[in-house]
Specification:
The complex is a heterodimer of chains A (264) and B (439). Chain A starts with a strand and ends with a helix. Chain A is built from eleven helices and nine strands. With 264 residues, chain A is α/β, with parallel strands linked by helices. Chain A has two domains: 119 residues, Rossmann fold, CATH 3.40.50.1860; 124 residues, Rossmann fold (3-Layer(aba) Sandwich). In chain A, 43% of the residues lie in helices and 11% in strands. In chain A, strand 6, helix 8 and strand 7 form a beta-alpha-beta unit. By secondary structure, chain B is an all-alpha fold. Chain B has two domains: 192 residues; 162 residues, Fumarate Reductase Iron-sulfur Protein, Chain B, domain 2 (Orthogonal Bundle), CATH 1.10.1060. Chain B is 62% helix and 1% strand. Chain B is built from 18 helices and one strand. In chain B, helix 1 packs across helix 3. Chain B is elongated and about 95 Å long. Classes of the chains: A alpha/beta (264), B mainly alpha (439). Chains A and B meet through strand 1, helix 2, helix 3, helix 4 and helix 5 of A and helix 9, helix 12, helix 16, helix 17 and helix 18 of B.
């Protein structure tokens, strides 16, 4: 198969050449540093390239949105980060932001406006779904058609922002076999990593939340657990390992499933 | 005339006690902090119609939710009859609202039918509490008092419904026996009356009078019992829904006092200036009841301890100490304890106890994943996560207290701009050797 190299456009380079992209693609810390999640970001970059989207990333100028600090109670640190990010956005005249991480999405969309940073914030699932609906992204491959998939709603897309339909609409294009967990949509159980839990040991209890959720996903007998959040991915992939099921059952991000289906 | 005087005196006593209670609560509300400005009345009306009148969130548990919705709708319809009873009682009229004509027939018929439906639902509720083990009615925060409260309130409602039914049977009975015209339509009483038709018109009249008084005096008692029990819910829940936070669940309220400080810090002309002398120092976050916003306190007074929040909390499900219901109950209990002391000694008074630590432990607060399952589930739009975060804010910003791993996250964000210890220089590593298939 013939391939061509993707040069991911960086905002500073574009500006130096006097170009201005339509979208800022916000990669997020997990996308930049988590080895497993890097693959998701790469998949989404392929989709952006495939769709010929005018975009750029901030690269080395990107920094934490402040979300984990804020949810852990450190409002001071959050606001310092946020004001810094808002300055960078101002510098590059950012108007539209695409995020993959739901936590970054939520904080840009709902919380930055309080500090004077208002943008059109688009989650990658909304972006992909819109491109499927307007016919730009054609998914006609049947390679995943018979693979059963269950979708785990990330709290910060679902309950926090009422995004339930887009991921399901996309998955239904990819496979004829989308199965729901017992608790889904607004009833979905958290993976256990929200609210800065990702970065600490859980409090004492009689079970880990990610195991409870993994067991629920396994009950569906789906072959793929689809996620849409870096933290959910860490938790559910860990859950599969813990249950010794990582060989037969895979955890993929929706962006990865699309790339698999498009074979790009 | 004597009847009217007795009625007026009972009503005055009821209103008197009730005003005392309300006044006391208002004095507690004065200690709380501002939340959001209450505007967008159109939106609020819609939320109230949907969540309160339509009972949409209670239907997240459809079966038992239906029983609750029937009780709620029944209450709303029966309320008209109660208003009529008050007017009749005060002025000596008989069924004064009959001037409403066909609408009166509707009100009486629905009240009569709903009295039975509510009674049946209440019996189901009582049976669930007394004979079945429902997990969400248990928990560390559910002391004997909560269970007693529930059983008393349910029994009172049952008595209210039984007296209403007896009243209707008595009314239909004696009016028919005396050959008079029944005002309003009473389908249930009409069915039951033939079973007791052997009673004389006189006894039926006594039944009517006795149950009329029982019913209205029970209402008066109930109104004053409620504010001292968890069933204050009956008064508070609809206003609480009307006063809902209208923002997406994912949004945390901004701390404007922090914004001011951060902006001062980031501005080179003010960064090293001394703080203005005499400016009031406001505590960051929530440590005690008076740090809560009026909305937090309103939430806590509206909570009826149904436990739907706790039953969906991922931390609680997996055996952690956190229970969102407990957080609300603790705030209410703490205000009840400290409120009177602050009324007497001022807002700054300290009794060497605080909501945080004496009632709510750090362990509970750090177990929250901010998943918002509790807030989504709450039938009356109570918001627990923002309050939990407010207590974390106090811990972190006033005491620099947080689990060690989170302190490391803070310093990583400060130093490398990421929660992990990686350099910003590596942020583009993921783009290496990225290729796309040419088709």
């Amino acid at each position: 198969m013939e391939t061509r190299k993707i040069e991911v456009p960086v905002m500073a380079d574009l500006f130096a050449r006097g170009e201005k992209p339509e979208y800022l693609f916000w990669v997020g810390c997990a996308g930049a540093f988590d080895d497993r999640y890097k693959k998701v970001v790469r998949a989404f970059a392929k989709i952006l390239t495939h769709l010929n989207v005018s975009y750029a990333v901030l690269g080395k100028e990107e920094t934490c949105t402040g979300d984990p600090a804020r949810r852990a109670g450190n409002e001071m640190l959050y606001q310092m980060q946020a004001l810094q990010v808002i300055e960078i956005f101002k510098m590059y005249e950012v108007k539209k932001i695409i995020t993959i991480c739901p936590h970054c999405f939520n904080i840009f969309k709902n919380e930055y406006p309080d500090l004077g940073g208002s943008y059109e914030v688009i989650n990658y699932l909304q972006f992909i779904n819109k491109n499927i609906e307007n016919g730009k992204l054609k998914i006609d491959s049947e390679s995943l058609k018979n693979i059963s998939v269950t979708y785990h709603d990330p709290c910060y897309l679902g309950r926090a922002n009422d995004i339930y339909d887009e991921p399901r609409a996309i998955l239904k294009k990819l496979t004829g076999c989308v199965v729901e967990m017992e608790r889904s949509r607004s009833f979905a159980l958290c993976c256990g990593a929200g609210g800065a839990q990702m970065f600490k040991e859980a409090e004492k209890g009689d079970k880990e939340i990610f195991i409870e959720r993994t067991e629920e996903a396994l009950k569906t007998e789906a072959k793929v657990i689809a996620t849409a959040c870096p933290f959910c991915m860490t938790m559910l992939t860990d859950g599969l390992k813990y249950k010794n099921r990582e060989e037969e059952i895979k955890n993929f991000d929706i962006a990865e499933l699309i790339v698999q289906s498009l074979e790009i | 005339m004597i009847k009217q005087i007795i009625f007026a005196v009972s009503l005055l006593i009821t209103i008197g006690i009730f005003s005392y209670t309300v006044n006391r609560l208002i004095s507690f509300f004065r200690f709380t902090r501002p939340a959001f400005p209450v505007k967008d009345f159109g939106k609020r009306l819609m939320v109230t119609l949907e969540v309160a009148m339509g009972q949409t969130k209670i239907f997240r548990k459809p079966v038992i939710g239906l029983a609750h919705a029937l009780v709620f709708w029944g209450f709303c319809l029966i309320l008209f009859g109660s208003v009529e009873m008050v007017i009749d009682g005060l002025t000596g009229t008989e069924r004064v609202l009959k001037i409403l004509g066909p609408f009166y027939d509707f009100l009486m018929a629905s009240g009569d039918i709903f009295a039975l439906i509510v009674a049946v639902s209440i019996i189901i509720f009582l049976a669930r509490r007394l004979f079945f083990h429902i997990k969400r009615f248990e928990g560390i925060e559910m002391k004997k008092r909560s269970h007693r409260d529930a059983n008393i309130s349910l029994s009172l409602i049952l008595l209210l419904m039984l007296s209403l039914m007896a009243m209707n049977i008595g009314y239909v009975g004696y009016t028919i026996s005396e050959g008079g015209t029944v005002e309003g339509i009473f389908p249930v009483a009409g069915i039951i009356f033939p079973l007791v038709s052997s009673m004389s018109a006189h006894s039926l009249k006594i039944l009517y009078e006795a149950s009329w008084w029982t019913h209205i005096l029970l209402i008066f008692f109930f109104a004053n019992y409620l504010p001292y029990s968890k069933h204050f819910h009956v008064f508070m829940s609809v206003p609480n829904v009307f006063l809902s936070r209208l923002e997406p669940l994912g949004k945390l309220p901004n701390m404007d006092n922090v914004t001011r400080e951060v902006k001062l810090m980031m501005d080179p002309t003010t960064a090293f200036a001394a703080a203005p002398v005499g400016a009031p120092v406001e505590r960051f976050g929530v440590k005690d009841a008076e740090d809560a916003s009026w909305k937090n306190y309103f939430d806590s007074l509206s909570c009826t301890e149904c436990g739907r929040c706790t039953s969906v909390c991922p931390a609680n499900i997996t055996g952690k100490k956190l229970s969102p219901r407990k957080i609300m109950m603790d705030l209410r209990a703490r205000m009840k304890e400290k409120g009177p002391l602050m009324v007497k000694n001022g807002r700054d008074f300290s009794d060497n106890r605080s909501l945080l630590r004496d009632l709510i432990s750090e362990e509970e607060l750090w177990a929250c994943t901010t998943c918002n399952a509790c807030a989504k589930e709450c039938p009356i739009n109570i918001n627990h996560p923002t309050f939990i975060i407010d207590m974390r804010r106090y811990l972190v910003m006033e005491e620099a207290s947080a689990p060690g791993e989170l302190k490391a996250v803070f310093s990583n964000i400060e130093n490398n701009g990421a929660p992990w210890q990686y350099s910003a220089e590596d942020r583009l590593n993921w783009t290496k050797d990225l290729e796309i298939a040419i088709k």
